[in-house]
Structures are given as C-alpha cells and as structure tokens.
C-alpha cells in the first residue's frame, strides 16, 4: 500500500479539525475525498504533506512511518501537494515556478521533467517567461499542478483544483487529472465538486467534521442516496 | 529567466562608478564621506537579502555592526590581536548570536524577528555603554589602525579602495545568491510560504541562513568602520543606527541589491553635504520612511527601472 493513514488527528489550537481519519491509497489509484466546507479536507492534505503537524495517529508511505518527518523532507520521499487556491509564486516567471517545484531533484531530472510538464501543458511553455501572477485562474491551476509534478511525486495531493474556475476550464482540469491517472500517477484528490471528482476517481471517501463517514468505490458513492442528497444536489 | 549578463552588467556598472567617483569628487573630505557610504552600503546589501528576499525585518542590525566594531576595537587595541583575526572573531560572534536568536524565532510566523532583533540591538548597545572598563562607556574608545602583515592601512584613498572592493565582493555574493536555486527559494519564502514548503524548500532553514549571513556582513562592515573612524561610541550600535539601515533599504528599494546601495548613498551623503539636514537627521529619517511608503512603496531603484523600461520600449 502506498499510503496508509490510521487514526489521524490534527488541531488548530483547541479546535479539532481531524478526529481520527483512516484511509489508504494503493499505487496507481485515483482516490477522491469529498465533503462540505470546513469538513477538514484541506487540513487532511496539509497534515499528509507535513505543512501542518499531526496530533495523533500515523501516516505511512510505503510502509514507512513518516508522521514525524518534516514537511520539506516528505517532498523528497515522494509526496507533492497542489495547495488550495493554487499559491503560485506570483512575481516569478512560469518557468522559475516550475524549476522551484523540482527543487528536491537533480538538475538533470529537473530539465527532463520540465519537458514532460511542458508537453502536458503546452500553454505553460508559451508563457514560460511571464510572471505567474499574470496568468488566468485556469493557467495558474495548470502551473500549480505542473509545479507539483516537477517534484516527480509518487503521490500527488490535489486540493480543490476546480475552485473558482469556469465550467469549461474545470472540465479541462479534470481531463488532465484523468490523463495523469492513465499515465500511472497516484493521486489523492480533494474536492467540493463531488460529482466531477467521483466521476474520475477509482474510490472515494466522504469526510464530515473531521471523520470519514463513507468509503466505497467511486461509482457506488455516486449512486448512494446519502451522497446524492448531501453532495450532488440531487 | 533573468539573463546572467544583466547581473554582470550591473556589477560592471557598479565597479565603474566606484572607480570614477573619487575622480569626480576629489579631496579627503569627499573620500571620507564615500567610504562611509560604502560601509553603510555593505550593511544594506546584506540587510536587503533579509528584508527584500526573506521578507523579514531586523530592527537591530546596528547591534551586529556594533559587535564587529567593538570586537575589533577591544581585541586589537586592548588585547593586541591581529586586526584580521579580531574581525573574524567579531563575525563569528555575530553569526553565532544571530543563529541562536533566529533559530527558535523564525520557526514561528509573522514579525517576531523584528521584535527579537529590536530587543537584541538594545541589549547590545546597553552592554556597550555599561561596560566602561572594556569599552570606555558612552564616551567611546580609540581604535588602533588596521594592519596586515605589518602593513598599515592609512590614507583616505586606501580606505576608500578597501571599502569599495569589499562592497563589490558583497554585491557579487548577493547577486549570485539571488539568482541561484537558493535565491529562487528565498523569493518563494517571501511569496508563499506554504507553497515553498510543499516544493520541499525548508523555509525556516533559509530564513535562518540569510539572517546569519546578513549579521556576519554587518559585523564585517562594523570592523572596517572601527578601524577607519579610529574612535568608537555605542551610538554606532544604537537603535537609531538600526532604523537608519532599514530606511536605506526601504528607500532604495526592497529586493533590489543596487537599490540598497543607492539608499545607503543617499541617506549617508545627504546629511554630510547639506548641513541643514544634519541637525534634523532623525526627523529626516522618519520623513523619508513615510514619504517612501506613501509615494514609492517599491523604493527608488525598482520604480525608476520600471519607468525607464516603459519609456524605452
Ligand atoms: N488556520 C486555521 N485556524 C483555525 N481553524 C482553522 C484553520 N484552518 C482551518 N480551520 C478550521 O478547521 C476546520 C477544517 O478546515 P479545512 O480548511 O480543513 O476544511 P475544508 O474541508 O478544506 O473546507 P473548504 O471546503 O472550505 O476548503 C474548519 O472548522 C476550519 O474552521
Ligand atoms: Mg479546503
């Protein structure tokens, strides 16, 4: 199992944002986590990437306990995160953003991966010298994904890639996610847009108030009455 | 990508200006002022790395300047150390102190470093004033000349040349740092901390490194100043001196190495040449800070650079 999470808890001061989460992701899988505002989705990803400390539970990558490994080191171990709201380095050029994404890799690997990312997102190549802050929202999302791919992750964490984007752009982004999945990238995808997420995913989890309340194959979740009522607006 | 040639061009221009200035402004007095400008500029280039690229403010950099200056004064004049060794001792002490302060504080977010350095600077200047036995207290102490292998550094031109070469070296170091992978990381620290960390950049470690580096550079400049001036008072390590350094960086343009030099030049030279300003130096400092924040929030050099680029093409 690539990622195994057991009893994971996280706090902001005294507020408990994660209340014992169990989940796993196998190599090559695309797993979606859906849930309402404030359910703890972002906190979960931040705790997995080590940006936020876990207060209880364990995170294992490839069987190795990484719960106490510092965030920046987890990138070298293979966890890359696309943060919520994209967070591109606005004044820096597109290419510098990407190169920084490959920070933990060797120069040779960076050059090679840069070519692959440009092949995946030709638009980024066209705009390589432009300051990242001047890109459109959709382009910035591509850049944020490309930047994470530059780290050559074994596990890609995606936080709300559809946030604030027009439906046509959202479609493109999800096509890209599907394409990454076909190329064998293992992905943990967090989304409020439950329909889009579960449509591309293999499996899914429903997160409510920091707990996993449902876990199933994505198709089964899409058909589940409770999911339909709460998250699909049906 | 920034072209490497623009970096070399900037350095070449700086070198040319440094060579031409003493020809354009001959005379002992002018050379002394230029040397003071250069010393302040060395501090500001280092401080600019911290403010402009790591997004952290130090309100106590004069403390490190003072540690360097007094390390040279005390160890050379009182203890008879070779000046070069005393200078290195001061740099080591400043670096260690900076590390000890920054390591726990920079792990926290926000402007805690500003508060901590404010405290540190005040402590240093109080200690220097109180330790009358060692430092002569508020009246100050004399400093022996700078000698290397029996050769004494004397005369305004020799001093100017030494400081100019030092400034070039520090500028070269700073420009290389800014354009290196570390530099990209530094700009990221400033831009989006979370994003930098998920790229694998240990932002805390970088902030600590830059802070230590800027403290060591300030200490080096302090040692030069002590020997150059020949007389040292605790004012050199005081709060107002710290504010002066910050104002120079902000006026010249944060995140602009050459801006830091221009800021240092303006705020060092103006009060010297226009004696009217001298009596109101502190008022002037506050006014410059406010005016910069309101009219030129990016600072002089970046603003002018954008203007020129726009009108040029
Ligand atoms: N920095 C913070 N300080 C305090 N509380 C926080 C902080 N960030 C999140 N929280 C709280 O933690 C809980 C989980 O937040 P989180 O951001 O993980 O939710 P989310 O599922 O990602 O929501 P959204 O869909 O709106 O992005 C919420 O109750 C939120 O108020
Ligand atoms: Mg969220």
Structure characterization notes:
The complex is a heterodimer of chains A (about 230) and B (about 325). By secondary structure, chain A is of the alpha/beta class. In chain A, about 40% of the residues lie in helices and about 25% in strands. Chain A has helices at about 40-50, 70-75, 95-100, 105-120, 120-125, 135-150, 165-180, 195-200, 220-225, 225-230, and strands at about 5-10, 15-25, 30-35, 55-60, 65, 80, 155-160, 185-190, 205-210, 210-215. In chain A, strands 6-7-8-3-9-10 form a 6-stranded mixed β-sheet, sandwiched between helices. In chain A, strand 7 (about 155-160), helix 7 and strand 8 form a beta-alpha-beta unit. In chain A, helix 3 runs parallel beside helix 6 (about 135-150). The longest helix of chain A has 16 residues, at about 165-180. The radius of gyration of chain A is 17 Å and the shape is globular. Chain B is mostly helical and about 325 residues long. In chain B, the strands form 2 sheets. In chain B, strands 1-4 form a two-stranded antiparallel sheet. In chain B, strands 2-3 form a two-stranded antiparallel ribbon. In chain B, helix 4 runs antiparallel to helix 5 (about 110-130), helix 7 (about 155-180) packs across helix 8 and helix 11 runs parallel beside helix 14. Classes of the chains: A alpha/beta (about 230), B mainly alpha (about 325). The interface of A and B includes residues 81 and 129 of A. Adenosine-5'-triphosphate (ATP) binds near residues 41 and 84 of chain A.
